[in-house]
Design goal:
The structure holds two protein chains of two kinds. Chain A is an all-alpha fold. Chain A has nine helices and no strands. Chain A is 71% helix and 0% strand. In chain A, helix 4 packs across helix 5. Chain B has a domain of 129 residues. Classes of the chains: A mainly alpha, B mainly alpha. At the A-B interface, helix 2, helix 4, helix 7 and helix 9 of A face helix 2, helix 4 and helix 9 of B.
């Protein structure tokens, strides 16, 4: 188990090894949903919440069920089922008890099951052999980093609406270039902390 | 039985007209992550072709017996089962490649291309056509991976498939190996693909002004 301070992991996963900008995870919804600031905030919150929850659950399942029975190779199936079940459960709970939150967040929840950042964080956790506290801060930090990236992106795209962009580059093309510039800016943080 | 012409049609759709990455912007997470070396991209592409074709085949075979409202879950499980096979084979025969690809092999599960093809094609078509459709969209994806990796590896290391193709005078563009290089390269290729296809559309469709 690597001896890294959980606080360091938290900040590193927000800034230096950001899920979108350094690991390319969760790009699909990042490009598709980053048109409106309001929806980006909603999706960012939902992703942060689900990421933290599923990372904790998957940590316990992996270390207390899969390893004792020698079933590590089943982790892909088990992780994806956990994620799908967790999302479904959260959807039902907030629909029942927090209807106002459900209306602002509800439509994003089904999208999250197929967000590769969620599965990616669980797989990274296994590969890097994190302890429980480290996994917790890794999940939370990755979620916050993803939310930060999509929020910044939607703000920039709002400003770009009236900009003259070459026809072939409109939409996904220009979004990728902005993401590249953002990734460059985030690389500037990489001297501070490092977890890989 | 399926005709040869239909298969040909499926392939042109998957590779060019409906290319999953350039035309539909699907599955680019892994397209960006593994393209710093051509060898990695090739292995990833082969893995994806395998998973896409066989999961389309399986989904298509059981399409009449799958209840409508749980079909997404069934598809995900089928895809995960094939991804586990790919992961085990890689670990057993190519351990260094398995380390290099890291979590991105497992992330084939959430690659929207496979899910998309299962949902939009395999769910409605007979098994053999679905199998070829899986291969075609997998090939389209591999083609994109290799084209991105070609430029990134050539500019970043001066090599192709690990073999040096330029002399000692070459200065590596470290930038191309880093994440921003992947984003810029992908954007440029999408731009090229879009301009080509829009030129074609304009010349075939009466050339109307925009």
């Amino acid at each position: 188990m690597p001896e890294i301070n959980p606080i360091v992991i938290l900040f590193a996963s927000i800034f230096t090894s950001n899920m979108v900008l350094a690991n390319f995870l969760g790009m699909c919804s990042f490009i598709a949903v980053s048109k409106e600031i309001k929806t980006s905030i909603g999706l960012g919150q939902a992703v942060t919440f689900v990421l933290t929850g599923t990372t904790i659950i998957n940590y316990f399942i992996y270390h207390y069920i899969l390893i004792p029975f020698g079933l590590e190779y089943l982790r892909f199936i088990v992780f994806i089922i956990t994620i799908a079940a967790f999302v479904q459960l959260v959807e039902m709970i907030i629909e029942r008890y927090l209807p106002s939150l459900y209306y602002s967040l509800g439509i994003f929840l089904p999208l999250i099951t197929v967000n590769c950042a969620i599965l990616g964080v669980s797989l990274f956790m296994v590969i890097r052999d994190y302890s429980f506290i480290q996994s917790l801060s890794f999940g939370l930090g990755s979620g916050l980093g993803w939310a930060l990236a999509i929020l910044a992106m939607s703000g920039i795209r709002k400003k770009l609406e009236r900009a003259p962009i070459p026809k072939g580059l409109q939409g996904p093309g220009i979004t990728l270039i902005i993401t590249g510039l953002m990734a460059l800016a985030f690389i500037g943080f990489s001297g501070i902390v490092r977890i890989q | 039985m399926i005709k040869l012409k239909e298969i040909k049609n499926i392939f042109t759709m998957g590779l060019i007209k409906d290319n999953p990455v350039y035309r539909q912007i699907l599955g680019i997470c892994s397209a960006l992550a593994v393209t710093n070396l051509m060898l990695n991209s090739l292995v990833m592409g082969i893995g994806l072709i395998f998973v896409a074709s066989f999961s389309s085949l399986t989904v298509s075979i059981i399409r009449r017996y799958t209840p409508k409202h749980i079909r997404m879950m069934v598809q995900t499980l089928i895809i995960s089962a094939y991804v586990i096979i790919v992961d085990i084979v890689l670990k057993a025969y190519f351990p260094t490649m398995s380390d290099a690809l890291g979590p991105y092999v497992g992330l084939i599960i959430t690659n929207c291309i496979i899910m998309g093809r299962c949902e939009s094609f395999a769910q409605k078509n007979p098994p053999i056509a679905s199998f070829f459709d899986g291969i075609a969209s997998g090939l389209g994806y591999t083609f994109v991976l290799l084209s991105v990796a070609f430029f990134r590896e050539f500019l970043g290391f001066g090599t192709l498939f690990g073999i040096s193709v330029v002399g000692d005078w070459w200065v590596n563009w470290i930038f191309m190996i880093m994440p921003p290089g992947a984003f810029f390269m992908m954007a440029i290729l999408i731009w090229v693909a879009n301009s080509f296809s829009s030129v074609k559309e304009e010349s075939t469709v009466t050339g109307g002004g925009h």
